[in-house]
Amino acid sequence: MSSRPLPTDAELEILTALWARGCATVREVQQALPREAGYTTVLKLMQIMHAKGLVRRDESERTHVYEAAFRREDTERGLVGDLARRAFGGSAGRLVMRALSERTASPEEIAEIRRLLDEAERGR
Hints:
By secondary structure, the protein is mainly α. The chain has helices at 9-21, 26-32, 39-52, 72-88, 92-102, 107-122, and strands at 23-24, 55-58, 65-68. A hairpin with a 6-residue loop joins strand 2 and strand 3 (65-68).
């Protein structure tokens, strides 16, 4: 994901709305955002995101329809990798330990973490 642009916080909110809906118009995204934002603000952000390659746009109809250019998992992987490099010296272990020290993980999350650790161990 290093060659892909990383979204800003505002862009990530828009991507989250698109991942939930699949495809959406600017108005639909605006209405799905967790905080109030003006239509022209959302439109401008989505135009910037299109230019950056974060979203694709179907221009075949009068009202353009947008979709995320990358899967949520790929974007999350890129964001986590960037955070690990910048804040934790590239250490995945330090990042995970810090994340787990911030709040208690649910039993389901702990089971998923164990599964991922088992996979990582088998891959060695």
